[in-house]
């Protein structure tokens, strides 16, 4: 029997065509199938719940052009555009220190292209370093399934060399192996990146 | 003579019908006509440009439902809703310290109603304080043209008393005069709120 709801859409039981929603916060599977952003957000929730750190992802910046205010219901944004962020995506506090970083994924297997970062993100890190903040990138080589904490000072060194026209357009994997801090997947949190941060403090 | 550009729009000289854009960062007038948010943003720009602090307002959190991707032009968000933020609006770093605050305006003249803050903002401040952060509210009594730095510890004291049912629903102005830090308007930055923060460090 087919049940038709008043709006004309057809009822579909959960077991049928629709994918089941799994509760990501309950089902832990070492980050399989999750984006780096999801892995970081879950890890931040763990750190927050256990009073270890307060680190959040900033919302995506949006330029709002048109908003409808229907009676008796919530305001609806009808026209808006994505803007470029003027900072990195993540910041917060850990052990009294200001933490600031961005997350980047690459499918490359031998190098990390610098154009994954934007000029303003690098400048933002430079400013935060001057104030005594702890800044870095979390860089994931997706194909290799390898995750590194890349110190902002190292990133800036490669960035400036590229800007001056006498550097490469990417950071070789060998440089990560030599001077970045590898992060292993674990159960709780999925990525214990603050253990890597401990090595910077 | 009328000049038509290839796309059919008509050229308008700057002196004609269009309003001139005044450069808000050049014209300073002690905050007159600016919202508290604008005053803080301008002050933060000043602090950033002078290597004094790196403090930004977080973007408004938006739940995006529908996005159009027109050919050869930018993606357009066609349906989205405002979400409630899970943190305060401003954070950053100053003199090596993590700074976290929210800005509130009230038209009241004798008291600041606590419902200007949301539960999650107070909980966020509580978490940041535990990590050693510097947390506060910037509270402006618009009608009185008075601005105060309200320490998070004082805010939490009133908040918890209210929650426990044995406190007031607002903080009296007299309490601000007694224990909040007054902030005077100045030229550069418009509100030198980090001078008030110095008294907390």
Question: Which key phrases capture this entry?
Answer:
alpha+beta; 6-stranded mixed sheet; 201 residues; Trna Endonuclease, Chain: A, domain 1; two-stranded antiparallel sheet; homodimer; disordered N terminus
Enter the CATH topology name of the domain at 36-58 and 86-198 in chain A.
Trna Endonuclease, Chain: A, domain 1
> Strand-residue fraction of chain A?
25-35%
Strand order of the largest sheet of chain A: 1-4-5-7-8-10
Estimate percent helicity of chain A. 25-40%
Give helix and strand order of chain A, one letter per element, not per position: HEEEEEEHEEHEHEH
Mean pLDDT of chain A: 87
| CATH A-level architecture of the domain at 36-58 and 86-198 in chain A | 3-Layer(aba) Sandwich
Estimate the global geometry of chain A from the Cα principal axes.
Answer: globular
Q: Count all strands of chain A and give the number.
A: 10
Largest sheet of chain A at a glance?
Answer: 6 strands, mixed
* Rg of chain A, Å, rounded: 21 Å
CATH class of the domain at 36-58 and 86-198 in chain A: Alpha Beta
Explain how this protein is built.
2 copies of one chain form a homodimer. Chain A is an alpha+beta fold. Chain A has a domain at 36-58 and 86-198: Trna Endonuclease, Chain: A, domain 1 (3-Layer(aba) Sandwich), CATH 3.40.1350. Chain A has 5 helices and 10 strands; from the N terminus they run αββββββαββαβαβα. Chain A has helices spanning 36-49, 119-130, 152-163, 173-179, 193-198; strands at residues 53-57, 62-68, 76-82, 90-94, 97-106, 111-113, 134-141, 146-151, 170-172, 181-183. A 6-stranded mixed β-sheet of chain A has the order 1-4-5-7-8-10, sandwiched between helices. The radius of gyration of chain A is 21 Å and the shape is globular. The termini of chain A are far apart. The interface between A and B is large, with 39 and 39 residues. Strand 3 (76-82) of chain A pairs antiparallel with strand 3 of chain B.
């Amino acid at each position: 029997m087919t049940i038709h709801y008043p709006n004309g859409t057809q009822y579909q039981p959960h077991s049928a065509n629709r994918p089941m929603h799994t509760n990501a916060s309950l089902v832990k599977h070492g980050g399989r199938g999750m984006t780096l952003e999801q892995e970081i957000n879950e890890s931040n929730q763990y750190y927050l719940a256990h009073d270890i750190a307060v680190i959040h992802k900033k919302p995506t910046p949006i330029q709002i052009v048109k908003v409808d205010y229907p009676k008796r219901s919530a305001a609806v944004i009808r026209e808006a555009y994505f803007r470029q962020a003027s900072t990195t995506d993540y910041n917060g506090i850990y052990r009294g220190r200001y933490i600031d970083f961005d997350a980047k994924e690459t499918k490359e297997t031998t190098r990390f292209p610098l154009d994954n970062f934007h000029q303003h993100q690098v400048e933002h890190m430079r400013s935060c370093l001057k104030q005594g903040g702890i800044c870095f990138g979390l860089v994931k080589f997706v194909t290799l399934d390898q995750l590194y904490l890349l110190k902002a000072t190292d990133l800036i060194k490669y960035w400036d060399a590229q800007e001056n026209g006498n550097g490469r357009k990417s950071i070789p994997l060998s440089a990560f192996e030599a001077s970045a801090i590898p992060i292993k997947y674990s159960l709780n949190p999925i990525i214990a990146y603050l253990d890597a941060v401990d090595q910077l403090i």
